[in-house]
Every structure is written in structure tokens, then in C-alpha cells.
Amino acid sequence: MTNEQYDIQNDSPQEKCGVFGIFSNKTGSDVASQAYLSLYALQHRGQESCGIAVCNEGLMQYHSDLGLVPDVFSKETLEKLGKGNMAIGHVRYSPIDQKSRSNAQPLVVRHIKGAMAIAHNGSLTNAAELREKLQMEGTVFHTTNDTEIIINIVTKKRIHTNTIENAIEKAMYEIQGAYSLLIMSPTKLIAIRDSFGFRPLCMGNLNGDIVFASESCALDSIGAEFVRDIEPGEIVVADKNGVRGIKTHCGQKSSMCVFEFIYFARPDSVIQNASVHNARLRAGEFLAEEHPVDADVVVGAPDSGLDAALGYSRKSKIPYGIGFIKNRYIGRTFIQPTQEERDKAVRIKLNTIEATIKDKKVVLIDDSIIRGTTMRRIVKLLRETGAKEVHLRIASPPFINPCYFGTDIPNRENLISYKLNKTEIRDYLSVDSIGFLSIEHVSKIAENANCGFCNGCFTGNYPIPEPQAAPKSKYDQKIGEN
Amino acid sequence: MTNEQYDIQNDSPQEKCGVFGIFSNKTGSDVASQAYLSLYALQHRGQESCGIAVCNEGLMQYHSDLGLVPDVFSKETLEKLGKGNMAIGHVRYSPIDQKSRSNAQPLVVRHIKGAMAIAHNGSLTNAAELREKLQMEGTVFHTTNDTEIIINIVTKKRIHTNTIENAIEKAMYEIQGAYSLLIMSPTKLIAIRDSFGFRPLCMGNLNGDIVFASESCALDSIGAEFVRDIEPGEIVVADKNGVRGIKTHCGQKSSMCVFEFIYFARPDSVIQNASVHNARLRAGEFLAEEHPVDADVVVGAPDSGLDAALGYSRKSKIPYGIGFIKNRYIGRTFIQPTQEERDKAVRIKLNTIEATIKDKKVVLIDDSIIRGTTMRRIVKLLRETGAKEVHLRIASPPFINPCYFGTDIPNRENLISYKLNKTEIRDYLSVDSIGFLSIEHVSKIAENANCGFCNGCFTGNYPIPEPQAAPKSKYDQKIGEN
Amino acid sequence: MTNEQYDIQNDSPQEKCGVFGIFSNKTGSDVASQAYLSLYALQHRGQESCGIAVCNEGLMQYHSDLGLVPDVFSKETLEKLGKGNMAIGHVRYSPIDQKSRSNAQPLVVRHIKGAMAIAHNGSLTNAAELREKLQMEGTVFHTTNDTEIIINIVTKKRIHTNTIENAIEKAMYEIQGAYSLLIMSPTKLIAIRDSFGFRPLCMGNLNGDIVFASESCALDSIGAEFVRDIEPGEIVVADKNGVRGIKTHCGQKSSMCVFEFIYFARPDSVIQNASVHNARLRAGEFLAEEHPVDADVVVGAPDSGLDAALGYSRKSKIPYGIGFIKNRYIGRTFIQPTQEERDKAVRIKLNTIEATIKDKKVVLIDDSIIRGTTMRRIVKLLRETGAKEVHLRIASPPFINPCYFGTDIPNRENLISYKLNKTEIRDYLSVDSIGFLSIEHVSKIAENANCGFCNGCFTGNYPIPEPQAAPKSKYDQKIGEN
Amino acid sequence: MTNEQYDIQNDSPQEKCGVFGIFSNKTGSDVASQAYLSLYALQHRGQESCGIAVCNEGLMQYHSDLGLVPDVFSKETLEKLGKGNMAIGHVRYSPIDQKSRSNAQPLVVRHIKGAMAIAHNGSLTNAAELREKLQMEGTVFHTTNDTEIIINIVTKKRIHTNTIENAIEKAMYEIQGAYSLLIMSPTKLIAIRDSFGFRPLCMGNLNGDIVFASESCALDSIGAEFVRDIEPGEIVVADKNGVRGIKTHCGQKSSMCVFEFIYFARPDSVIQNASVHNARLRAGEFLAEEHPVDADVVVGAPDSGLDAALGYSRKSKIPYGIGFIKNRYIGRTFIQPTQEERDKAVRIKLNTIEATIKDKKVVLIDDSIIRGTTMRRIVKLLRETGAKEVHLRIASPPFINPCYFGTDIPNRENLISYKLNKTEIRDYLSVDSIGFLSIEHVSKIAENANCGFCNGCFTGNYPIPEPQAAPKSKYDQKIGEN
């Protein structure tokens, strides 16, 4: 899918979150700035809200708000967070109807053992049951985040355990689903990954300080060295005694989200030993094998299709071309053109390069296709620019099932591949031919990856049961914050 | 004290909060706007943060933030809150070290029975014990507000009661201290006042809609008619069946904060049947009886001393004069002058009118004196303007004890009347004479008031025991939000 | 008139500007901060835009914008202006249809002799003719300010004169009308006042630095000593050789705007040797003599009628009362109530104090009455609060003529005293009686003032001919800036 | 050069401006929105300030400010500009020391014939002489723009001519240098290009409305059809009678800035009949011919080197690779890392893709090199990522001379190619080899272009004499606006 559509229409599956944490052996470190810089590198994983919590010898300071990292954090805000020896940070995406400042993370609370901060990437499949159970016991909820469920369960376990890591270990028997978590207590920074390893989480080393991040690109951004991925099911504790892993919940067959490689992750990240950029190149190469075509030029939809387009070009020997130019000054304050203007001119954010397209047979590559509305406009642009033929190649299989593991996929009714067959899609988009990557190949794109994959969104085969909607009280969750 | 000091130094006891609520029989009412206008009228009760929660057929929308009412609410924000049949609003002051967006109210949560919103004016005396107990049971706290304690206790009672008002009734046996509360459930708006009636809370009628407010001036502001004060200990429930009072906790000897009449409340409010303006006039009259002086003019420190100055003038027959002019354009963004500029010229925010002062024997009236720093500057101004004599008269007794009932009084160490005797104060302020209102008279200023008074800040005699600090976990509450 | 009306409706004559200047013998002085603080004190003379220009050894830095002083200037902006040895500042009001950033002053330009900055309070009566003539010679205008006309004429004279003060001296033969000017060249600060002395302008001394200001309250605000008023027609030059006056244009019979004493100037200012506060007290006293009434209490419309109300009370022996309370938190961002809300409740910004009003015969005092719309609402408020009788007394004569000398009076069609006779006004406002100050008395309010007065707005007798509209080119001045 | 450096250091030649204009036969057209959308497409030509002036039946409304298009214009601002039948818009870059709101364009003034608005791209070579002459005649300048000189000269001519186009025609005999101008009178929109055609300016058709723009990409953005380039020296007048060209100043040998093709213009623009994208591909191809090398992959510095990298790859048959990923969320509010952080981690804004670079012999392509500081960091990044060899190829000749024609090139002392010889540059940048495009080839990159080129920045051969600094008055232009 193209980023173009961020503004025109929310037409892409959305990663819900990114997390970052740092434990320094030195008190008075500028851990807030490290978190700030890393959140920039993880911004693609969530643009709705962000936050940072700093711990300075037990005292926690935090700041979070709706907005992008540079909007939420100023020099002054970072200075107020102050120095410390630990910090966690979070970027968040959420569906428009849950857009709320109170849902911004990290969530910072007080309980019987003092303060606790938590940052969460993922989604629980038994959230409704757990929430119902907790409410029956008199629990008050301040947010609609699954994260608050986790923090309540951990707190209840904490009353009867000696350490927070034991409380987490026990809580993990109750919570089901996808979660990569960072929990900060007054003295410890703890990284947790669910047993299936749906979402990535890795560890790095910054001059002796321990850092955790959703993706390795965040480590690069602050000059930290990659150490290893957190294992599925592992609890990693960093404190003054060093780093240790608790593996009670490890050993499950892993089930990493393959869409991290297809679209979510940044191409410069390396996840589970596999390069994201290379995975996309390979997807393009497989696509060239599966769906060859006679054409003059291969162009990628910017920026999501560029890597796969280069792979297709290399395999097919059809020249790679630069077909589009994006206006890099289009920001969030862009005033929408009227429908009339839109119909006659979608070239404000994206324009074609005539020299590449005109009178050519074009292979157009994108990573995936959700609703199809944006792709239809892009194809129209190519036609208007004089393309003789347009052959669309999609570097993933058709998207036909919901995801319960921390991404935001539209309802099936909005998925073009669920609604239409391949011929109908071809006609709707006005392309000369269309080809999707096969399910067989999609599992092979991340060469060398040391993990299994979840491809439920393509196949409907999920590693754990789909969530059952729990009975709700009449007014449950009917709260909106502005 | 003068308002002047708001900016120069925080040199006044601060009322902590104001609350407003409306229950309309008409769905789709613009209850948010009514709340907005009323919060303007209550802004003097809290300038740190404010918020409004609207309930529309069970669905609650809320918005709150740090800042004054016009800063927090824009036309757009109000529109997002939407129409509804109920709303509650809150303005809040808090000590600088608790300045935090998460402490802004109304607090809106979900529990077993759906959503609940709460707005609170007051302070619990057993908050520490209650918090400890709740935490021992696994409760997670998101704020440092006493309000969150109340909401947790009410929720725990709610599991075993048929109605929210019964849960509140039971909870009132456990919470001690000062509280005027508004609680909004999906179908009811409930007003509660503690048994001592420390803080004011009244009910009004706006074309058939029921409104509650901390002060009657808020009713005036929206054109509502005053109906009556909520009784100390009373629970008033407004729902589609009408309004009814539950008086289980009524009957206690009441103990209204006398400082509401001296300084906190707006002069145009009527509280417990007594006019605030008249109370201040009477304070001035008593003061003239107790501490007469031979002088040419009586001037009030703006704006807090103006009413009492007029009373003093009337009783003493010394002419009332306008001695000061405040610059009404000085706002919060004012850039502080340097110390040097300040020493030579405090006349930026406040200037004297030479025609009133020069070569005159001046009686200067203010409502109270806390630290004395601002008063010292004002006296210096009068001297520089050519006053022959300056006789300070304070329309309340010396302030020497802490308050535990919802105001923010500085530590004893900062109270000038605690540190210095009357002669020392006179010398520190460089006045020719000083006189305070007697404790006997202070209880009589609110003529016709149908309540008893708490004057613990002057006498140390409190109607309920002073709070005991509870044992805290090492890291308890060590959280700051920016 | 009441300030209340600023927001509800623009229902008052508006002073158009205030100016401030400082010449320091010390280079590297913080002249920008002195200007900033002084503009605060002059803010009542203009709230639309403001600006400061600093001169540091010939290099001028300036900043101006639409907005109040605290909105336009931040700590950062002041720092960017830097240190220097001279500064001039300006606050400006202008009719809504000329609201434009390019009209903000000081106007800073380059000409043959380098840079020049100018700040202007007043209005030329031959502006149209001068502009036409300059345009015929090829002059390009960037603003619609009269100020730009002055600067072009001075510049043209400057080519043929040795000094800027000579150029100004020559220019003054051509420009007619009201002007109090500050002109800053790279080495000199020059204060100029027109021959009639319509607008005030005074000189002060701040530890040896020379300061000029529209009103003495600005001197007080920075701790400067008052030295003297600039004489009508005088050119005062401050440079490294000291201060000297050029009196070529002096000697005319002066014609100070009497409305400065009635409403425009701050009560703590002293103008032409007369206290503004005392002038208003005297206006009240004269009013009590001219229009006595049997009543219980005298209240002033806040804040404009307070001084005169006190004077009326003193003379009549009827007690002075505090009848109104203004909400001091109402700011510019206030969201307007709907018409319905407005009709039933104007008490958001202004409320009555029932204890003062109810069952009383009230004398209501204001300084003047323009449209009458706001006064009508205030009277309605008094009636609703239970006033038995309302007797309106206005501390100036009826307003029936336009002003051409630097104030912004509505068209005659909007002047209630032009449209209606006294009985009709009484009925329109629903008062029991009405009385205006006589023209004989208005000229005597400023006791000891060492000047003559212009009372053209009451009498139609102007000291110089009314301006003739000049022929305009078809598209002249049809420019709006947003 | 890379865009990366915009933030790190201002390390690129800067185009100074872009212009847009529209003349509609329909009154009440939304010409402001057309200008707004087009300025987005021209934003790369100037990021300091922007503005739009709308003409509605002779009445001009304008708005301009410092900032990017989406910052300066909101929905509200555009609505205030209103509908009309003509508009001109402008984006501007300027050296940091002239950053001033008063220099923002369009410049809108009043003169003898009414209002006039002007937008200007370029730079006059005899500006100092003209300014001096005008000042000697008594002209006052409000800005430091050359544009104000043009407007004064045109105005002076206008007194003695029948039409504005005649005045412009006469003025063009006096002004020398580079200028692409749009001038809007109350009834006409006029486009002018200097005789050498230094800067581009083209005409389009939008459903019968006439549009002018610096680049064709602006026409695409609003769906307008390209009609033709304005000829060097041509004056094109659009009014209700249609469009006509005045060619008195045409016929000169043209001298288009070749840097428009190398870097300034957007790759999707077509200028003087030549595709900008193709010109850059050809530059890469020529570079491969001139400076071949044995390597594994060709990568472009993002985004400025991408087109040429693809050309180099095609010609050399060395595979094209995606070597870098830019963080697209880095905005203007980015908080600078400390020097320490910077040294160890430049990967916040730009990261390498290890899969492309590691263990490879890399050809790195960029369009030009100015100071070399950013390039040095990029090379360091490649080394750290494991590149075996780095061969730098620059798609233009060494930059060694100043430009007087409307770009902002640093002083010679800052040009790396002026200071160092090729070997020294190679060593400074730590590359294994370096190659620049030859001067012979640079003139051939724009295949089919129907114009001559200025390559003075590479050769020192300028089509018109270099400007002579004029004698200045001591304080001339010493004004800064904040």
C-alpha cells in the first residue's frame, strides 16, 4: 500500500505500537533524550500518540500526548522529564474512534509496591473476559487499553509474590494474545514477549547500557549495538545486578507476524536474523517468477512498493524506473481539495514522471492492497500520463481475514480481496493484469529468519483461537475523551 | 490578600476546586455550553486545570486539561463534547508540585455498571489510610487525587448494592473530611455534601433543568434560579423521576469554612442564606469598631480588600478612596521584570493614584495576610506616593494554623502571623499601626447564615481530628507528570 | 462607557494609539524591556497591534504584530531585539476593517540617510490631499497609515536639509491635524507634538536616560520620574549631546482632547498638570450639583464609571456602593453565548451584587454613552436584581459629533444622543431619569490643567477645519491584509 | 547534495523563489485555493516564507508570513482571502540574515493607479545602483527586496504611460539581472521574464483560466494543461480581452540556469521542452562514461542523487541498489542531538540498509557537492555499515564561483571545490575515488532543451557583468525584523 493514502483515506493495515526502553548503570543519564531519538525511529509504528516515562532513583516522571514525537516533545518537555537511570517510551496508533489522550502510553500507575510504568505493543485475545472478571471484583478502569488489564492482573499477583518478575510470570498464564511489553518498576526494567512472538522485540547495548526496542532501526538511531531478539515467551530483567532471562513461557512454536516483513517494519531493520529490505526484494523476485509479463519498465508505488519493484526488475530484467515523485512538504495541516479538484487532480501529493511512464508498458508494484481506492487513483494517474499498459503486481497474497494480534485491519467488508474476485479487482482498478504473491512464497521471503510465521490474515489459520466477544454491561466503555 | 500576588508570588490561601452539574429532562441539550459558562463563573475557585464530562443517553464524552477555562475549551472542543442530557464540570487548583494533567477532573472511569464521572471539591482527612488499604487489596491508582479513592470505594460498594446512591451512602461511612461531590452515572446526576458542610454546594433551576454549583454566582451566570443549598450530609439524586434527597448522613452540627466568606467565594454569591459581599462589608465595619484610627482616607487592596474598605469607611465616616489602579492587561504570559526593575518599580501591575494618597493619612484594608511579602510592597508603594501615615487593617484574625479541609495554606513556617508577633509584623510591613479582626467577630460576619463555621485556621479547633500520616511504601506516589 | 462592552459590542470611542521612547547614554542597555513594560502600561490606548524598534549603534531591529503586548512579545522575541541605546514602542487600535499587520507600528524604513523608525498617535486632517499629491509624484504606499505619509514628507525634506529635525520642522508646515510622534534616526530620538496638542506626550527621566510616553502612568511603570509635558508644536531632540527643544511651531492656543480626561487616559496618569482621577471625581461632583436625585446608593458602571460615582456620592452624600462584579477571567477567547443565552443572562462577564441593589433607589454613573446598547443591558440587570429606581448620570455631555483627531467614534447614525432626544433615550434605556454633564462643566473637570481643550465631539466646534475627502483613484486603498 | 543537510547544516545552493499566478474569466472563482495548492508544488523552491494575493474586481486581499505553505495558510486564512478573478502566490528562500516577515511576498502596494501586487523570482545585478538613485530622489524603502526596487521604477514610469504593461516595458530598460515576475494590477495579470531567461516561467490553461508558474509541476498539481514557456524578455498580459505577448525585449541569446536541471527543479517538471528527470538520468549516464569503476552496487544519496544513480547504473550495468532510508517523520521541530550523540550516531534522520551495503564495492552518486560536510558523514555511514570501497561520483562539475542570478551559493571560502584540489577532496571525504561530470557534458544533459545555459558557477563566465557594490550611506539597510 502507499503512504499516499495516509492522508487521502486511511487505507492500510496499521501497526498499533512501538516500544523502547533503556536501563543505565549510571544515575543522572539523559535517558529521556535516548528515548526521544529512538521513538523518532519507531514513529512509523504509531502516529497517534506517544510518551516517555523516566525513572530517577525510584521517582518517575512522565509525559505523553496525542501527536507525533516532535509535536509532543519539546526541548522544555524533555528537560522537565529530567535525568535518570531508566526510561521507557511508546508510540501508538489506534482506530479513529478510540483516539484519546487517556489511552496514550506509557501508562504510569501507583500500587502497593510503589510506581510502575508500562508500554505495550500488541493485542490480547481474551481482553473482554479479563476485563469483565476484573470489573466484577470492583476494579475501576481509566482507559480502554488492554494494557490496563495487564497492569491490574500483574498488580494483583504482586501482592502475593516477592518480585515483580514473578508477578509477571504468573500473570502470563492468564493473558492470551500478542504482547511485546516493557515494564519499569522503581528499580527494574523488564522486557516481555508473548509465547508466540507475534510482535518483534530486541535488545541492544549502548556503551554498557541495556536498551530494548521494537525494531533494530531504533538501536541504529542512537548508535547502540544489536545484541539479540527477546525470545518468544521470555521475560528479560535488567537491574543493577545485570541482565537475566526467565524462560518459563518459552518453547512454544513461534508465530511472528509476516506483515512486519511485508509492510510494517522499516526496511533498514533486521528482525529474527532477517533483513526487512531483503525480504521485500525477495518478494519482488518471487513475484517476477510467479507472474512474469512483457513490459518496458518496473515502478514501485512510493514508498511501500519500491523495494519489491527493484526485486522484480532484477529477476525479470525489465528496467527499474522512477515513476512517481511525492511532495515531501505535504504535512498534516494539508487542506483537502474539494471532490471536484480531487477528481481532476490527485497530483498534489503525488505526481508521475512522464519521461518514465509515457508510451511505456508499465509493471506497477505495491506491497499489498486493502480497499483498493488509492491504487485505483494511482493507476488512473499512470493512464493519464500515457502508460500503454499497466500490470499490477502485489508483493503479498490477497488480504481476506481479520487480524487479532495488534494490527488494525479494516472489517472484511472493506477488504477488496474479500469482496471481489481477481477479475473483478482487475476491472475495478483498470489494470491490464494483476498478480499476487502466493502463500507458499510469502512464508519464504524472510530468508534465514529464525522463527515461524503467522499468516492468518491470508489463510484464516491463527495460532490461537479467535476472541469471543464477552457479554458487556449496557454502558460499558461508552466513554469518549476529546 | 491581593490578587496582585498571584503572579508575583503565590501568596494566598487557595481554594482547591469548584464544581458544576446539570441534569436536563431534554435529550440533546447543549449541557456542555452551560457547564462552560458556569465554569467561567467558578474560575476563581481553581485556575490550574478544568474539565467537562457530558452524558448523552449513557454515552460519556469528556475533555479536561491544564489551563484556564478559555484555554482548555474552544468552540471546536465544545462541539466534540456534543449534546446530551447531563454534564458535570470542574475547576481545580493544586499545589505546584502536583501540577499534573492526570489530576484534572472530572475523573471519568468504567466499572462493572458502566461509566461514572466524578467532580470533587474538598479534601479527605483519612486519605492515606484508605489509599493504603485499597492498595493492599490490589488497587491500582492513576492519580494522586483523593477523588480516585472515593471512586474506588464507591465502586466496591456498588457490586453489592442495587443503586449508585446506596453505594455512595455506604461509602460515606468510610470517607472522612471535606467533600462537595458531583457524581454522574449513565442515568443519574448525584450531588453529595459531607456531614460538616465544609464546602458550599447549591442547587438551582434552569427552565426546569436541575443544576448544581459550588456557588450561586454560577447559577446567575447562566440565568438559573437559586433553589436551595444542599444540606450537610445530604445526597441529592436527579434522574428522570425527578429530584430526591437522602439524608442518612444529615444532622451533624455544621462547620462551614468561614474563609469562603472572607476571601474564597465571589462577592456576588449568596451562601447558606448570607451575602458574601455583605459579610465583607460587615467585617470592615467590625474592624472599624475594634481598631479605630484618625485618618483621611480608607483604601482597599485591590480587589480583595475593596468590600471591607467600604464597610470600614461607612462605619468610621472616614472617606472611601480609590487608591490603586490594576493593569488589567497583565496576563499569564507576562515577562517578569528583573530583581532590579522590581525593586525600583512594582508599578507595572499595580499603580497608586497619587491624588488619593499623597499627603494623606491612609487606612489600608485587606482581607487577610499570609506571608506578608506582597503587603510589604503595597505599603512601600503608598509611602513612595507620599502617604503621611499607613494604618493596616486586616478583615480576618491572624492566620496561624493549617487547613485540612480543601484549601491550600502554606506551611506554618511561611505564615507571618505564626512567625512574628504583632509588633514585629508592624515593623516588617513598615506600617504605623496594624489591627486584625477578632475571632469573636469573624464568626458573626455572615449575618443570617444558617450554618455553623469552622475557624480552625485561626483557632486550631477543628471539628474532626487532624489527619495522621499513614505509613507509605518506599516509592509511593513518587510520580510526576509533565 | 463600560469595558464590558469591549467584547459584547464595540461600543466605545477608541483611542487610537500610545507611544513610548527611550534614549540611553549607555550603549547595550536593555531598552527593549523598558519599552515592553511601558507598553503594558499604555495597552489601554490600543489593543489591536503593538511593536518595538530598538536601535543599537545605528542598527535597527524591530518586531510588531497584531495582538496584545503579552501575545506579541515573548522572552525570545525581546532577546532577538537585543540591547541598544534607543527604542520606540507603539500600541495601536484601529477600526476592524483596517485590521492589518502591515499597519502595525513602529514603521521602520530605509531612506537616503539610513534607517528611520516612527511611532504615531493621532490623525491627519489633510491626509487624503497629501497622499494624492505624493502618489502623483510616483510614491508607493505600503500601508494605509497616515504615518507613512508623514515619513514620506519628512524623507523628501531630508534630501535638502542638514538634520532630521530640520526636515521634521519643514514637514510640519504641510501636515495638519493631531499627532504626537516619536521618530528614531540612527543617532537621535525625536518627540514631536502638533501645535494644538490634541494628544498627550510627556518626558521623563530614568536614571539619566530620557524617556517619552503618551501618559505618565508609563513612566511610573518603569520607575521613571516625570519631567514635563512636550509643548504643543514642540520638537524635542534627544541625542548624545543631550536634550533640546525646537519651538518654531509653538505658541498656538492649545486644544487638548477633553476625552483623555473623561475616558481614554488611565486614572493614575497626570496630564498637563492635572490628575485624571481627580478630573473624574470632579465630573461626578459637578453631576451631583447639576442633576441631584433622591436615592439610596450610587454605583459606577465598572470600571469606567467608578471614579465619577465616588465623586457623585461625596457631593450628594448618598452612600457609595459596589454594585457589580466583573469576571476577571473572561479573556479574548471567550466563546459568545447564543442570542437566547444572551437575552436571559448577560451575567457571565458582569454580575450584580444583590445586597447592594435590591429594593434600592440606585444612581448609576458612567463616563459617557455612545450607542447605548450596553447601558441598556446594565440597566436591565439592575432591574432584574430588584432595583426600585434607576437614575442614570453620565459624566460627560451628549456625544453628537465626529472626531477627526485620532479617536474612533462611530458614525453619527450610531450615536444614541444624535438619534434620540433625552426623553427617548430615557425610555430606550428604561431608566427613571437621566442627566448629562453640561458643556460648561466638562471644560472645568481638569482643575489646574495648563492647556485649552477640544470639545468638538460635544459642540461641533473644532479648532481646525474638518477634512475634505479628496478625489480618489478608482482602486485606491482597496487592499486588505489578513 | 542531499536534503538530509537541510537540517544538519545549510549545505546546498538555494533557489530563492517560486511564483504562481492565475487569471480567471469568472469572477468569484476560488483562485486562492488554486494558488495554495500550486504553492505546495513549488515549496521546494523556497521554504522561508510564502504568500498569496487575491484580486476581486479590483479589491486586493493578501496574506503572507514566514513559514511553509501549510503553516502560513489555514482554511480560515484562505477563506478570509475570499473569492476573486485573479491571484498571485510566492514561496521564498532567503539567507538567514535577511529572514524577515516584511520581505515576504507578494508585495502589495498602492500607487497613483490603485493597487499593485508583485511576485518575483530572481536577483538584480544593478540593485545597489538603482536603490541609491531612488533614495536620492526621496524614495522610502520598507524591505530589502530587489522587488521593491522594481515596483518603484514601474510606478515612476506608470505616471507617464497609458498602461501598466508600457510602464513595465520601459522599466525593463533599467533593471538588469535575473527576474521572472508576476505583476497583478486591479484588472490585469502580467508575466515577465528577463531577456536571458535565467529562471523558468511557464503558462498553462485550467479550463479556460490562464495560469503562470515557475515550473510545470505546479500546473500538474491543479490539473492545468501546459501551454508554453514564457519567452526570455517577453511580457505576457492576461486580462478580460485575452492573452497577448509583448516581445520588445526578446531576441537575446538565452542563458537558462543549468542548476535548475541539476538540482533546483522538481524531477517531474518539464522546462524549455526538456524533462528534468531525464536530464538527471543523462547526467548519471555521462558520469558512467567519464568515470567508470569496478563495483557491486550503485546507490544515490537520497533524494538528490537517486535519478543520476539510476542513470549511472543503466549505463555501467552495475546493479542499482537502495542504500539509505530517510526518516520521513523528522520535521522542523527536531531537537538537535549533542555533538557526542552526533558523532556516534547520524542515523536518526538517515540510516543505511546493511543488506545493500555490507561487503560491497559501492558507487555513491550525488548531484553536487558544496561544503562537503554532509557528504563526509554519509561516506562515514557507508564505511561503518561495512562497504568495502566507496566511489563518489558527482553529477555536475566542481562548484567554484558565485551566482548573481537568484540562487544562494555560499561564499567561495566555503566551497570545497574552491578550497581543495580533487585529491584533497577525496582524502577529506575518505572515498576511494571521486569523479565530477565535465563542463562539456553538463550543457548536454537537458536533451532537446530549446534554450542556452548559464554555467557561470562552474566556469566563471557570466552572460552579464558581475555586480559592482555601490557606495552606501553609513546606516543603509541596517535594519532587522524579528
Would you spell out the secondary-structure blueprint of this structure?
The structure is a homotetramer of 482-residue chains.
Chain A: H1 5-8, E1 14-15, E2 17-23, H2 31-42, E3 49-56, E4 59-66, H3 69-72, H4 75-81, E5 86-92, E6 107-111, E7 114-124, H5 127-136, H6 146-158, H7 164-171, E8 177-184, E9 189-193, E10 202-206, E11 209-213, H8 216-222, E12 225-229, E13 235-239, E14 242-246, E15 256-257, H9 259-264, E16 270-271, E17 274-275, H10 276-290, E18 297-300, H11 306-316, E19 324-326, H12 339-344, E20 350-352, H13 354-357, E21 361-366, H14 373-384, E22 389-394, E23 407-408, H15 416-419, H16 422-429, E24 433-436, H17 439-442, E25 453-454, H18 456-459, E26 479-481
Parallel strand pairs in A: 15-25, 18-21, 21-22, 22-24
Antiparallel strand pairs in A: 1-23, 2-5, 2-11, 3-4, 3-5, 6-7, 7-8, 8-9, 9-13, 10-11, 10-12, 13-14, 16-17, 19-20
Percent strand of chain A equals 25-35%
- Which class of secondary structure composition applies to the elements of chain A? alpha+beta
Distance between the termini of chain A: 30 Å
Runs of chain A in which pLDDT lies below 50 for 5 or more consecutive residues are: 1-10, 473-477
Shape verdict of chain A: globular
In short:
4 copies of one chain form a homotetramer. Chain A is α+β, with helices and mostly antiparallel strands and 482 residues long.
Can you offer a commentary on this structure?
The structure is a homotetramer of 482-residue chains. Chain A is an alpha+beta fold. Helices cover 29% and strands 26% of the residues of chain A. In chain A, helix 2 (31-42) crosses helix 8. The longest helix of chain A is centred in the middle third of the chain and has 15 residues, at 276-290. Chains B and C meet through helix 2, helix 3, helix 8, helix 10 and helix 11 of B and helix 2, helix 3, helix 8, helix 10 and helix 11 of C.
